[in-house]
């Protein structure tokens, strides 16, 4: 089968995609900016190196982490219905494709897709997923793009002229601040074009006990995922964090309708990045992720603010997640 690569990507000797050019510098700059703030914070996209992507896949199989399972079940129910609207030679563009496991539900429901464009920040996860999809769906053009879905470019020409179907499952949109989420959906509408569809997965507001358990599991996998950001900073940026000196904190923020993850310094310390030094007081936190929780009304507001219409909204069984079908 055919695969295409894109500019801005480094290649290994075997032709595998390695990483987005400039990712290292961007990580370094985000680290400096984030640790210089009065309230320290880092963007969650840096969780997803090879180990972070592996840990996230492990999270999706935890008993407490319901969103992946619940969304897959709901997608199995609605995909056949929604795929009926794709039309001939449609192109599925997935934002933050990771292991591309849920993609299979859509690919199975829409056997006449022309191309699949998975976009992911983790080159290792993207390569492995693209190889597996290539092997299992002969005849489907797989056009992987290593990169940050906040900087979308139009699908490659090889994808053809069929209707564009955006696919953004997993409530990853919840990681973005409201303005950034609107900006992303607006740019997706521009890039995918008139007449396109967009399948958006969102986690729904529910009892704080269920939410907190999902982000603070008994086995400590989510804690390891959170701390891996520091492990990665040590390896990629030569920093000297002591990951074990930080506690994993997961809390529900009702004012902003979001789960938050933080890393909390258990004692005073100084962390270095080259010649720079960052001071932590005992108990000081780094805010590493916000995961917004929605309802139908807040999804509608978000979609419409970005120029999309909310065509359908489906809610699964408890603990419930939602799937929205947007039309350009
Ligand atoms: C991949 C962004 C959807 O926010 O639930 C899982 C990441 N963080 N456990 C989420 C995550 C902690 C996840 N998303």
TrEMBL record:
It comes from the Bacteria. Coiled coil: none annotated. Residues 27-313 form the Histidine-specific methyltransferase SAM-dependent domain. This is Dimethylhistidine N-methyltransferase. The lineage of its organism: Bacteria, Pseudomonadati, Pseudomonadota, Alphaproteobacteria, Caulobacterales.
């Amino acid at each position: 089968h055919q695969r295409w690569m894109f500019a801005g990507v480094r290649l290994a000797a075997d032709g595998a995609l390695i990483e987005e050019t400039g990712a290292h510098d961007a990580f370094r700059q985000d680290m400096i900016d984030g640790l210089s703030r009065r309230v320290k914070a880092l963007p969650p996209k840096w969780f997803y190196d090879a180990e972070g992507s592996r840990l996230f896949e492990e999270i999706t199989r935890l008993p407490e982490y319901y969103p992946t399972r619940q969304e897959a079940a709901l997608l199995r129910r609605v995909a056949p219905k929604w795929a009926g609207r794709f039309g001939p030679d449609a192109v599925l563009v997935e934002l933050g494709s990771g292991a591309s496991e849920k993609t299979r539900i859509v690919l199975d429901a829409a056997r006449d897709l022309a191309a699949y464009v998975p976009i992911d920040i983790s080159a290792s996860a993207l390569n492995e997923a693209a190889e597996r999809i290539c092997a299992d769906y002969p005849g489907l053009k797989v056009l992987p793009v290593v990169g940050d879905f906040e900087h979308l470019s139009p699908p490659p020409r090889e994808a053809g002229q069929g209707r564009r179907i955006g696919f953004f499952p997993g409530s990853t949109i919840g990681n973005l601040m409201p303005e950034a989420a609107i900006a992303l959906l607006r740019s997706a509408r521009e890039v995918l074009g008139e007449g396109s569809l967009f399948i958006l997965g969102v986690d729904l507001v529910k009892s704080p006990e269920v939410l907190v358990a999902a982000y603070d599991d008994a086995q400590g996998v989510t804690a390891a995922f959170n701390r891996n950001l520091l492990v990665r900073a040590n390896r990629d940026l030569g920093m000297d964090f002591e990951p074990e000196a930080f506690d994993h904190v997961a809390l529900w923020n009702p004012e902003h309708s979001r789960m938050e993850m933080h890393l909390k310094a258990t004692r005073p310390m100084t962390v270095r990045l080259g010649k720079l030094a960052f001071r932590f007081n005992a108990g000081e936190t780094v805010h590493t992720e916000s995961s917004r929780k929605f309802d139908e009304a807040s999804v509608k507001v978000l979609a419409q603010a970005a120029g999309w219409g909310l065509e359908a909204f489906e809610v699964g069984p408890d603990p419930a997640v939602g799937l929205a079908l947007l039309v350009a």
